[in-house]
Amino acid sequence: MKFKLAPSLLAADFWNLEKAILPAVEAGADVLHIDVMDGHFVPNLTMGPIVPKALAGKTDAILDVHLMVTNPENFITDFAKAGAHWISFHVEAATHAHRVSQQIRDAGCKPGIAINPGTPIAHLEAMIDHVDFVLLMSVNPGFGGQKFIEATYQRLAQLNALIEKSDNTPFIQVDGGVGVANIGRLYQAGVRCAVAGSSVFGKGDPGQAVRELLAEVEK
Ligand code: DX5
Ligand code: ZN
Description:
Blueprint: E1 4-7, H1 17-26, E2 31-37, H2 50-55, E3 62-68, H3 76-81, E4 86-90, H4 97-106, E5 110-115, E6 133-137, H5 152-164, E7 171-175, H6 183-188, E8 191-196, H7 198-201, H8 206-218
Zinc ion (ZN) is lined by residues 8, 33, 35, 66, 175, 195.
């Protein structure tokens, strides 16, 4: 799969969302990452289906909804209707993960399973065959702008090994603390979609930031 950069809207200027998003997409970001937090699974509140609904049809970018919520099954229909293309949910949050991934597929979206830095990779084993991607958290979810956790590289090796021995080949997405200093190494380690919040929207020019990040991957 061609590498995809996924700017996280959490770091964008909500006063000027269009001005933040369009240059990023024009510069080659294929995916827009939408962080949904419920104040329960994670200690923060963010956005609901009105955000993808506002973006749907306005760009060609893939709308990637990252559910950091308990009871993810309650939100799938609404996000799918709002225009989400990908929906990921946390292995730590789903009592019936297998059913949730099926629900996402039935709603017409690509299911992804997300995993926190403190959860053993082995917990994904039963789900690898039932998802289109794995979202490996490289920070503890809840906030943008945190420092990348270096142990992610070891976990990537474990995840690649798990995928290797399974029948399915979900792509790997990494989320948290991604920037020009590590995106190249992450790509080399098998990551095919990198989420980037502050490294895209935290500076003045999102388009330029996207070009710099993608240049690291193309090196
Ligand atoms: C963290 C979110 C991330 C976050 C990434 O809970 O899931 O998607 O927005 O932001 P940065 O790139 O600033 O770490
Ligand atoms: Zn995220």
